[in-house]
Predict the structure of Winged helix-turn-helix transcriptional regulator.
Amino acid sequence: MIENDIFKALADPTRCAIFEKLATGSMNASALRDGMKISQPAMSQHLSVLRSARLVREERQGRFVNYEVDPEGLALIAGWLAKYRAYWPARIDALKALLKDMDQ
Amino acid sequence: MIENDIFKALADPTRCAIFEKLATGSMNASALRDGMKISQPAMSQHLSVLRSARLVREERQGRFVNYEVDPEGLALIAGWLAKYRAYWPARIDALKALLKDMDQ
DNA sequence: GAATCACATAAGTATGTGCTTATGTGTTGG
DNA sequence: CCAACACATAAGCACATACTTATGTGATTC
């Protein structure tokens, strides 16, 4: 159940914020830490969890490690969500907008 | 951050299984418990968490309480997911299938 | 090659979470 | 009414998790 790891990873608000920040553009761990009240080890641990959940992937660049959003995690969530499409009401505007975007 | 409650609710495998079972059709707490190795209080607590996360909603029917999937929780996940559509690769088959379904 | 930097890992601790048993609440049927 | 039922809540406990400080690892710079 990889989805469980994904949900578990996103269950923590700090980790959710890290992911959200990373979604604005790939950056290294130090850059991610800027403006966030979080220690270096804590950030490293959070990134490790996000990476295990396939929400984030890393790429060594010299002594920096560049992190970026891993689409695979998002795809897995989308897959999970798709299983329950029978329950999506017509009024889900977010989804409708989403669909339009994909059609283009 | 209501999404955090949703992710936290789905982070537990037991709760995930309960939701999945409920997605096959609405039923009461006792029926949900059938075949699952889980005590009555544990089930009640899990349902309470799922309800707080808007993943499930209840309806009293005599001395039974009927539970069903609450589309609002799914919509919130879809909304969260939509924020990161920039990262969806074209190869996400699940999403593509999902889109086709919605178009019909 | 030694110091420094960017990051990872180890170990300990405080808090959170999911379970248990016990009990409470509301409903139904005899 | 009262016994049985369906479910909720309370309290306590075992374990998980998110943090801390301390230290390790690999790369760069002087």
In short: Residues 12, 14, 38-39, 41-42, 45-46, 60, 62-64 of chain B lie near DNA strand C (CB under 10 Å from a C1').
